[in-house]
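Query form — protein Class I SAM-dependent methyltransferase

QUESTION: What is the three-dimensional structure of this chain?
INPUT:
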Amino acid sequence: MQAHGANPKGVDWNTEEGQLLRFRQLATLIDLPGDFTVNDLGCGYGALLPFLADRFAGIRYHGCDLAEEMIEAAVRLFGDRSDARFAVGSAPAQVADFGFASGIFNVRLTRPDDQWAAYLEATLDVLDATSHRGFAFNCLTSYSDIDKRRADLFYADPRHLFDICKRKYSQRVALLHDYGLYEFTMLVRKT
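ANSWER: The structure tokens for Class I SAM-dependent methyltransferase are given below.
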């Protein structure tokens, strides 16, 4: 965010259009017309909030992020909203109807794949424990072209994560891998 500010490039997305496409995939999890709660794990500057609020009436949003500067930016942008709360942290402080994690599993820097995969799976446990109706997340895909991959990014195996979600969290799991980006979105519906 230091180089680009509170915008999609500041949270490592190439374009705003790509970010909105990701948000649309995540939002397909929502099966209520409104009046529900959301936890946004790794919320960055809070961009998911206006996207959801424009589409669903009466949502109550809680964003948390490890980076204090991200939370400060979110508060500057959206702190006057009565339907939103932001906090520095690695896990939501409360259980919500829906949990989301967008982009937090991509940048592993120099961590080995096995350590990053363990972090990802532990974070799925957090999403599960802090959501009533379900959770959704996205990852870069292991089906990405090998010559276009970056060494500092993590490319997850969607089959492996689908299997984990199906066996551990719910029988109602959807894998979205057809929206034109080198990634996938997983939806885990609990009820």
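ADDITIONAL NOTE: The helical segments are 16-27, 48-53, 68-78, 113-129, 158-168.
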